[in-house]
Design goal:
three-stranded antiparallel β-sheet; 8 helices; four-stranded mixed β-sheet; 212 residues; Collagenase (Catalytic Domain); alpha/beta
Length: 212
Amino acid sequence: MTPQDVETLFTRHDGSYGFARWGRPIAPIVFGVQDETLSVVKGAIEAVATLAGAQMAETDPELGANLMVFFFREWEELLEVPDLGRLIPDLEPLVARLSAADATQYRAFRFDDDNAIQAAFVFLRMNEAMSQIPAESLALAQAVQVILMWGDRAFAEKSPLAVLPESGATVLRPEIAAVIAAGYDRMMPPSADDPSHALRLFARLRLDDPKG
């Protein structure tokens, strides 16, 4: 992994750089799944938070829960969720746009005065293709994508996960794990919009393979 690779992970579609990590303990809640899947999703969030050194909490003093994960069949179902429109601006046109695009997932963030992550919302439309993905893999991928605010296309061409050939287990790619850990380094800022931040992240990477 090169400094350019790191910068690309946090580059937006307009070419600007944007990084943010959580500025408070993460208090997750999951809607639309059975108990066994609920434990898988929360377990994945806790595992990634532990890797990052981020704190977890039962509740958030302002929102109750600050990481909300929704599983559903059709985007229109979101319009029936009480008070969701107060948390997600312009919910109706957003649902219409996602439905027209046949999208299967969407993430939204809210930020505090330091531009650190204050809350995150994960929406997963479980069509046939999504339903074929093992719950562990789906949960881990989503946990990775909300532990930091990544660039728009950070994982568009390559998943943050890898499958171990020996066991078939799905794991977080080591270079992505290293970037997450570096992002939560106590000496690093909670947010950044200057590409030089990527150089500081790169300098803190801990990879077993020095070539990345």
